[in-house]
Amino acid sequence: QVQLVESGGGLVQAGGSLRLSCAASGSIFSINTMGWYRQAPGNQRELVAAITSGGGTNYANSVKGRFTISRDNAKNTVYLQMNSLKPEDTAVYYCNAYGRSGDAVTWKDFASWGQGTQVTVSS
Fold first, then answer.
1. Which residues contact 120 (CB under 8 A, 6 or more apart)?
2. Helix or strand or coil: residue 114?
3. Which positions ≥6 away from 119 have C-beta within 8 Å?
4. Is 89 helix (H, G, I), strand (E, B) or coil?
5. Are 51 and 79 in contact (CB under 8 A)?
6. Which residues, listed in sequence order, are joined to residue 47 by a DSSP beta bridge?
């Protein structure tokens, strides 16, 4: 199994910044893509940003130019730097990762979610 643990959420005023972290642990052989999703009350969970093992990134239009995703492959950790935060960024942020668990001989695909971290932006 592969577990994801997020940290870094909190309460911030509009225009402020927060940095989220998500560390993967367990029987990890390789991680392909790591990403951040968010879900506000009454809304569906949506992709915020994702990054591949090679560093390719993808962002939701609503966060382009304000959020930056990065990862440390050696630490199996992904980060989300959030700047110029807006009240509409308020949501529970979830980390996601998929790849292969086990070893080079016996592996299987995995897809894991973190428990979520609350981000609240006050106006």
1. 10, 11, 12, 90
2. coil
3. 9, 10, 12, 18, 20, 38, 82, 85, 89, 90, 91, 92, 93
4. helix
5. no
6. 37
Summarize pLDDT for 18-57 with one digit per residue, the tens: 999 999 999 999 999 999 999 999 999 999 999 999 999 9
In this prediction, residue 1 carries a pLDDT of 87
Q: What is the mean predicted confidence (pLDDT) over 110-119? A: 97
Local structure of residue 88 (DSSP, 8 states): G
Half-sphere exposure (Cβ direction) of 69: Cα atoms closer than 13 Å: 27
Task: Give the 3-state secondary structure of 38-86.
Answer: EECCCCCCEEEEEEECCCCEEECCCCCCCEEEEEEHHHCEEEEEECCCC
Structure tokens at 102: 């086990």
d(CA 69, CA 83): 11
